[in-house]
Every structure is written in structure tokens, then in C-alpha cells.
Amino acid sequence: MNKILLVIKREYLTRVRKRSFIIMTFLGPLLMASVIILPIIFSQISDQSKKTILVLDETGVFYGKFEDSDNIQFQYITTDIETAKNNLLKNEDDGLVYIPRTELNLPSSAVLYSKKQFPASIRSYIRNIMKKEVEALKLAASGIDQEVILSIKAKINLVSIKIDKDGAEEKTFTEVSMVLGIFAGILIYMFIFIFGAQVMRGVIEEKTNRIVEIIVSSVKPFQLMMGKILGLALVGLTQFLLWIILTFAIVSVFQVAYADQIPKESLTQVVPGQEQIMMQEEEMHADTEQQNVARAFEIIRTIDFGVMILGFLFYFLFGYLLYAALFAAIGSASDTEVDTQQFMLPVSIPLILSLVMAQFVMRYPDGPLAFWFSIIPLTSPVIMMVRIPFGVPYWELYLSMALLILGFLGTTWLAGKIYRTGILMYGKKINYKELWKWLKYKS
Fold first, then answer.
1. Domain count of the fold of the chain
2. Is 314 inside a domain boundary?
3. Angstrom distance (rounded) from CA 193 to CA 190
4. Do 225 and 86 fall within a single domain?
5. pLDDT digit string, tens, across residues 344-374
6. Taking the alpha carbons of 276, 279, 285, 287 in that order, is the dihedral positive or negative?
7. Inside any domain, residue 271
8. Contact by Cβ (8 Å): 408, 322
9. Same domain, 125 and 225
10. Is the pLDDT reported for residue 323 higher than 60?
11. Which range marks the domain in which residue 130 is found?
12. What local confidence, expressed as pLDDT, does residue 339 receive?
């Protein structure tokens, strides 16, 4: 045991002192924080100049219907289309909406000419105005009062409540569970591959440099393999915890430093034409903001952060240990990274499959497919993290954890048999038949 601890200490200190570890430890939080911060900054420095759009309506139906907004100003013209396009190129106007004349039907199409590509929000705004006006004309032609149509429209608010065996009720938010589940699953997938590949490269490097020949003279191959795997596991946990702490610190400092400079609307994308609707809703519902804040806190309260964090740490650690043992075995059986490709596919398929099946599991988190994929050790690290936000019975969680631990012990035993032979094997191309012989060797 003391020798394993020495190997763990060596691997841990060697990795954390590397320049790449230090760079990624600080670069990772910057990248994650930038996902939150940059959209807010870009919304402030983006082009907020007012766009001038000419309107050439040969039908006369939409004259005066395009209302100006904070970002768009409409000007109506009566020239022919060719003259209008020539003037657009010569003048400082930004765009031209051309609505051609129709003889029998109401206008149903238009052309937007512009010097530069317009944002989709502006195109949507113009389309919605035309759609609303044409619908109003059709209703009037049919003798139907538009106010009657508007009055019968209803908004249904469907609240999901989960009832447990004791009759306790709890609100659930499926969309939030889906986001949390897929985010946690992707993180598990990435970390297992990243740190598992580091184990494999470390084994190949030591094998190529012949350093392992010196090490195994005083440490058993199995102890060396376990020390490398556990040492890198601690490196991964250290880096992950630092990422969480530093990301939270960066975002918190940004919020405090720029709290007065970030208007509330910067948190959402304001689409031209929706501003008036938003203002009307605020006037009709003075407590909308308080309701949103209360809803946000209600959503946060439904998340079992204790189970999420502990589950993530457990499945990351033992999922990594399971796959790291296999990666170590692959590294010991190969002289270069090119030689590892033939063995990587069978090991990678369960992880890739679990990430692909995560989308189906989110739709049916209690289905038989989700159950079995979250129980099988090779797929449970990703699939169980996808299921946890939806609520998993504790017996399923404990069964999955127990089988994952057994799976780790089993793969470590198998990997150890390959590792002790392959770590000192040089210059020979290893195939599956040779690996099978190594597995059958008796101690």
C-alpha cells in the first residue's frame, strides 16, 4: 500500500507542476465564464445604430403599418422598384422592403433588399407585421370581428407536480432537469476521455523511455498501474474543483463590477417589435419581475444539489477509474499512440453510445432502456447523471453504484493481467489473440 501511495504522490505532483496543467486550470474557468459573460458584453458593444428601411408598397395595404422602433426607422416611397434599388445603393439607407402589386389576392410576399445581411430579428419583425395585417383584412372580408378572435385565444399554464408515496407534493420543471442532466452527462464523458487518455499516454511515455524498467524493479506492475490511475484521478478532481471555484469567482466579480452598467434587457435578446409588447405586459402586470424571481427561486429549490454533486463526484471518480484501467492496459500493449487505435474502438463504443442514448433517456427517464443503461457499469456514469435530475429511486441508484464499483474492480483485474505483461513488451505488434493469451496467464 505504501508503494501505491508513493506512485500516487509522484503522479500527482508531476502532473500538477506541469505548465499545461497550470495553463488549463486558469484557462478552463475563463472559457466557462466567458460563455456567461461574453453574450452580455457583446450585447452592449454590438451595433445599436438605427436602421433606415425604405418601404415601397405597390398595393397600398401596408402604408403606415410599419411602426418605428428603437432600432428601425421606416420611410415610405412611391418610386418604381428599379429607381428605388438604385437610390438604395447611392444613399445611406440600409434596406428596402418591396411589396409587389397583386391583381386578385391579398399580398402574401415581399422582397427585402439590403446592402448587408440583416439580422433574422428584423426580417421576422417585417414578416409578422405583414402577416398580422393580411389576417386582419381576411377577417374583415369574411365579416368576422378581429376582437372576437382575440378574445377567444387562451393561454394555458400547465404545472407539473410529483406526488411521492407519502402523498407529499413537489413541483417539477422538466426543461431544467433536461439541461442539468445532459450538461452533467457531457462533463462526465469529457473528463473520462481526457484523463483516461492521459493515463494511456503516460504509460506509453514511460514504456518508450524505458523508465518503467527501473520503476518495476521496486514496484509491482499492478501497484504501478493503480498508483498512476489514482494519482491522475486526484489530479482530475483537483482541476475540476478549481474550475468550479474560479468560474464562480470570475462571474461573481463581473456581476459586482458591472452591475450598474448592465441593463436588465441585456440579459435577454430584444427583438425589434417585441419591445412594445414587453412594455404593455409590464404595464398590465406590475409584479411580473417579482414573479419571475420567485419562479427562479422555486426552480432552484426543486434541484437536489446534494444528490447532483455527490452523484457527479462518484460517477466521475469510479467511471474514470473503470475506463482508466482499460486505457492503461491499452497503453501497456502499445508502443505508440498509433498502435492504440485498434484497441480504442471497443473501449470507446460504450461511452459514445451512452452519450447518443442520453437524448432518448431524457425523453423517457423511467423507461426500461434508461434503467438498463444506467445499471450497466460501462454506460452508467453518463446515463445515470442524465437521469438523476428527473429523480431516481434510491435502490436503483445504490444498485448502479454497487455494480459500477464491481465493474471497476473487474476491469482493474483484467487490465492488471494485461499491464504486467505488456508493460515490458517492446517492438512487437500486439493483436487481440495475444491479449487473450495474456489474460489466461496464471499468476
1. 2
2. yes
3. 5
4. no
5. 888 889 989 998 888 888 888 888 898 999 9
6. positive
7. no
8. yes
9. no
10. yes
11. 51-144
12. 72
CA distances from 234 to 227, 244, 307, 427 (A): 11, 15, 21, 33
CATH number at residue 102: 3.40.190.10
More confident residue, 206 or 99: 99
Q: What is the pLDDT of residues 185-240, one digit of tens each?
A: 888 888 888 888 888 887 787 777 766 666 666 777 777 778 888 888 888 888 87
CA distance 350 to 404: 14
Q: What is the mean pLDDT of the chain?
A: 77
| Same domain membership, residue 189 and residue 126 | no
* Lookup: cell for 372: 438498463
11-25, 140-154, 309-323, 370-384: which has the minimum mean pLDDT? 140-154
Nine-digit cell string for 437: 493469451
Q: Is the pTM of this model over 0.85?
A: no
- In one-letter notation, the amino acid at residue 379 is T
Query: Residue 68: which pLDDT band, with cuts at 50, 70 and 90?
Result: confident
